[in-house]
């Protein structure tokens, strides 16, 4: 039986907590704490009339919420086939289905944006429409493509949330609905009622992710609050950067609330005893339409941008010119991504050890760390970068992108540690607790099972930091090569040939690396399903 009485933390666990704090302090605790003090000082020393008008901030927040919720609704709708595929005995497809989210979101938009480039059918039609007086048509098309592309990028997140809900539903209910529901609309109402919580969670989660995103929506000329904050940082001297934090108060409040709720749920799931329902050996395979729908959405998310990038390249020499122009930036970004991977793996391992103790103190400390890392991920990236620049003015510039990557994507290690604890089979958990729930028991019982998951999550963090733009353009000093800065320059200055070559390499190569990351993550759950049931 799972022990519930409080247990003292072993010395090795306390040391693990010290290592975790040693990573989080320079990446998040010190920069955010210092920023709070600077904002308080600035507010005390300035006339509040000089601050942005509340009505202006409220309008920008509303515009941001509308765009983010629209993306979340489309992503949730697009995720329905993949969610059914994952839930109904096809979890081995999950590694492939999740790969779009590990690609750069701005390249997803840039790829589909090529569909309206001059010389294309859509581009020529928009040019004729603008010439005849419909100047709104190109802008509206660009915004629509941005929302659709971001929805395709985010659909894996929705498929996981919905798939977990569908997996808990009795498969026999599908047959009952087909026989008894009088119409497709009636069936849809019943399905919505059954999965209302998962649907709302999916929309809320993707909305949280999109609120802090600025580059794709900025390129589509959607003036969100995240873009206004970035512009304010760019146009202000450093001693006035605190004003951008005041302007970002609505986004920060939403990010803090989201991090608090999600962090609590993750840690609670990591500690809750898990009892699986008995396996259903008669579980019917998904219908062909479900499989075809999931494949189609995946192809639109990954294959569509890849194809458009490839078709827009006029000369094969552009592919090799990318390496001539970007070799230094790619090398530096790879080194930084490697460092992010290592530090994220340390976060995952130490947090996994702390959560395995089952102690109340460990749960509280783990919840604090998970919430802090989620806040770094959900807050606007430009603000995280600004906080790091202000907090470490004399630090080697090469260290700041590393800290920014940990602050932005270290949460993947924390999520991996929580999921690893959640995925631990009940029989193995009980055996570990009988051994004393110390570091030795963790190393023998948890580490072999969780290593693929924690390594995959850490590699995913490094891969996402490789092409992160928002924080990196703030912390990267002028004149220093950076892959993210070069891609941002291609996007802003319409260097379509170079951008297409970069997109082809990054998206195409990234799909392979992303598949490796999520395959490692899936390995943990495959091993778990082979464990004997308690």
Question: What's this model, at a glance?
Answer:
The protein has helices at residues 11-45, 54-78, 80-87, 94-98, 105-113, 121-131, 136-167, 172-180, 184-194, 196-211, 215-219, 225-235, 242-247, 249-271, 288-312, 317-356, 360-378, 381-391, 399-409, 411-423, 426-434, 439-466, 470-475, 483-492, 496-530. With 534 residues, the chain is an all-alpha fold.
Radius of gyration: 24 Å
Uncertain segments of ≥5 residues (pLDDT<50)? 1-6
Task: Tell me the distance between the termini.
Answer: 10 Å
Q: Shape, please?
A: globular
Largest sheet: none
Helix content: over 70%
Mean pLDDT: 80
Our estimate of the beta-strand percent is under 5%
- Structural class, by secondary structure, is mainly alpha
Strands, count? 0
The count of helical stretches stands at 25
Helix-strand string: HHHHHHHHHHHHHHHHHHHHHHHHH
Task: Walk me through what this model shows.
It is globular, with a radius of gyration of 24 Å. The longest helix is centred in the middle third of the chain and has 40 residues, at 317-356. With 534 residues, it is an all-alpha fold. α1 (11-45) packs across α19 (399-409) and α3 packs parallel to α7 (136-167). The protein contains 25 helices and no strands.
């Amino acid at each position: 039986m799972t022990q519930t009485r409080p247990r003292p933390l072993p010395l090795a666990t306390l040391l693990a907590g010290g290592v975790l704090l040693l990573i989080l302090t320079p990446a998040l605790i010190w920069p955010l704490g210092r920023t709070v003090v600077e904002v308080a000082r600035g507010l005390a020393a300035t006339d509040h009339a000089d601050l942005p008008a509340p009505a202006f901030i409220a309008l920008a927040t509303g515009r941001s919420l509308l765009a983010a919720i629209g993306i979340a609704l489309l992503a949730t709708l697009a995720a329905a086939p993949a969610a059914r595929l994952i839930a109904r005995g096809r979890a081995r497809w999950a590694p492939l289905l999740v790969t779009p989210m590990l690609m750069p979101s701005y390249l997803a938009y840039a790829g589909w944006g090529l569909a309206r480039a001059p010389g294309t059918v859509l581009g020529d039609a928009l040019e004729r429409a603008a010439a005849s007086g419909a100047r709104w048509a190109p802008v509206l098309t660009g915004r629509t493509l941005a929302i659709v592309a971001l929805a395709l990028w985010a659909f894996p997140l929705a498929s996981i949330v919905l798939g977990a809900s569908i997996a808990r539903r009795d498969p026999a209910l599908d047959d009952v609905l087909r026989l008894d529901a009088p119409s497709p609309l009636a069936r849809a109402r019943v399905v919505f009622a059954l999965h209302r919580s998962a649907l709302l969670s999916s929309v809320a989660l993707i909305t949280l992710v999109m609120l802090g995103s600025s580059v794709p929506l900025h390129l589509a000329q959607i003036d969100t609050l995240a873009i206004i904050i970035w512009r304010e940082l760019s146009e202000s001297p450093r001693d006035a950067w605190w004003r951008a934090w005041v302007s970002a108060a609505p986004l920060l409040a939403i990010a803090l609330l989201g991090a608090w709720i999600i962090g609590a749920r993750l840690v609670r799931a990591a500690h809750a005893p898990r009892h699986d329902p008995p396996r259903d050996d008669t579980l019917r395979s998904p219908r062909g339409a479900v499989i075809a729908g999931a494949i189609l959405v995946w192809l639109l998310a990954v294959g569509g941008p890849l194809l458009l990038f490839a078709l827009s390249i006029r000369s094969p020499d552009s592919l090799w010119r990318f390496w001539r122009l970007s070799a230094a930036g790619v090398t530096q970004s790879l080194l930084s991504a490697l460092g992010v991977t290592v530090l994220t793996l340390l976060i995952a391992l130490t947090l996994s050890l702390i959560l395995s103790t089952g102690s109340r103190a460990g749960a509280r400390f783990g919840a604090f760390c998970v919430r802090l890392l989620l806040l770094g991920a959900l807050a606007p990236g430009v603000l995280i970068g600004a906080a790091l620049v202000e907090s470490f003015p004399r630090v080697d510039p090469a260290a700041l992108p590393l800290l920014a990557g940990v602050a932005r994507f270290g949460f993947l290690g924390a999520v991996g540690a929580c999921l690893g604890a959640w995925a631990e089979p009940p029989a193995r958990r009980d055996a570990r607790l009988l051994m004393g729930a110390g570091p030795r028991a963790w190393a023998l019982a948890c580490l072999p099972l969780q290593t693929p998951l924690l390594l995959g999550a850490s590699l995913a963090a490094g891969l996402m930091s490789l092409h992160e733009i928002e924080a990196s353009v703030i912390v990267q000093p002028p004149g220093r090569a950076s892959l993210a800065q070069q891609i941002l320059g291609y996007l802003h200055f319409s260097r379509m040939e170079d951008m297409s070559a970069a997109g082809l390499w990054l998206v195409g190569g990234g799909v392979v690396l992303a598949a490796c990351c999520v395959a490692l993550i899936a390995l943990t759950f495959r091993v778990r399903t082979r464990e004997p049931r308690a």
